[in-house]
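anyone else get weird line breaks when pasting these?? whatever heres mine. first is seq + tokens for prot A
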Amino acid sequence: MVARETFAKVSPLTGETLGNYPLSSTDEAIRAVESARRAFQTWKMTTVESRGRLIRAAARLLEDRKSELALLVRRETGKPLADSEAEIGGAIEMGYMLAAHGRFPYGKLLPSAIPLRQTRLQRVPLGVAALIITYNAPIPNFAWKIFPALMAGNTVVVKPSPHTPGSADAFVSILHEAGIPPEVLHVVHGEAEAATGLIEGGADLVSFTGSYPTGVKVLEAAAKTLAKTVIELGGSNPLVVRSDADVENAAKTAMDSAFSNAGQRCASASRVIVHSSVLEKFLDHVQTNAAQLTVGAADEATIGTLIDSSAAVAFEAYLQTCADSGASVTRLGVISGESAATVRPALVTGLDPYSEVGHTEVFGPVMRVFGFETDDQAVEIANATEFGLTAAIWSRDIVQAERMVSRIHAGVININGPTHGAEINYPFGGVKHSGNGSRDAGVEAIDAYSDVQVVSTFFGA
């Protein structure tokens, strides 16, 4: 018998191997879809209320296991324990919110021009949902996709990132313990071959969170089967600071938006656009606040590591490209716990905001700062990227801020707030290369993970 191929998950904190996981082939992924397809025939007949009770039970178990899950996530991703715990709290709330929809209206009545015709619109499950999930916030990412997919009546096959296999297994195990049948919720581990198998296997819905190039490949593959797609991709998000802003708080918020989660957020504020009259003051606040930043593998670090050493190498190469283009690169904070995945945050000034190096997505702790003179120029710089996920505008003049909102191309915009931190009841997604119009989270997620059916009864027949 041929031994099954596996891959090792290495902790970015210590370099130790946390476990070995099966590397699923295309054929194995196809078989998982087939198994989920068989289970769908029974699962789709369960009531919405009963599915809600199971998800509520899963949320309770997540609460019970929060500490051990947070530690596992820290070991797999390198993020501070407090950040892991906060993320799991969001996942728990997502479960409770969606579970409540077992008792909420799930459709609506439609008027008709025909006498004695009663017509209803109802949500119905699609079938098998293939969920391809990235690593940067594993437990919330699982919750945002798995909970609405199950609640809508689909069976599910999850393919987590190879960077977070243990977190995926732990999350799915908890849902099984809560009563979700194993044949209804599967996990396949691996790389592109496993994802290809899920799509080629005929999944009815493909939900993907990750990079734009990979998202395009997912859409191309899904187009061949006409699977419904939920796509959430990258971002290069602007945070605009007008001349009348609270500059001190804007600087603190910009740093949190740019550097939290070690910059590994699709909603990270990697481009900060500051009015020239307050630019020097803004940079002074950044430098002052930087003294409080500690980054690395130590338990007391306020910013964790990147996901692995190759990500650290790529980040340093990007900063070298910035320097080679004539930009000033200033490293911030102090190292607290060395590891091959540790990088210091970077403040970059002097870049051309319209150049590729000035507006590309950087999955790391970088803040590129640009000056502007007029609101028109700020909007132009904000939109000077192929992405359109999130944005923030800082101003005491709310009327002018609202006018700017109407001109910035982004799916989520905050006034006097960060570029990240969407709440679980807010639909999340972007425009342009950041997504295809679908939305995760919020009650809108039920719409994304289900289909519409129109049913009429003719009482005059």
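and prot B, same format (seq, then tokens)
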Amino acid sequence: MKLFSCKIKGHKFKKLPTDSLYTEEFECTRCGKQYTTDGYGRMVKLSKYWRNNNSYFETFLKKQQSA
């Protein structure tokens, strides 16, 4: 029933707390699905691929800043 509500009214996002400055993660308060932003700023479903991508991006930027 919660997913049906999101199809009619749309998702209601709340930002998840992360220690990252560059990646953002969101969760729908109605259905509980998690999302993140891709490189173009579009919302995509937060899957294992995107979790790995976000963590790789963070480690890459930390290496760049320390050099």
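btw re prot B: The helical segments are 2-9, 48-66. The longest strand covers residues 25-28.
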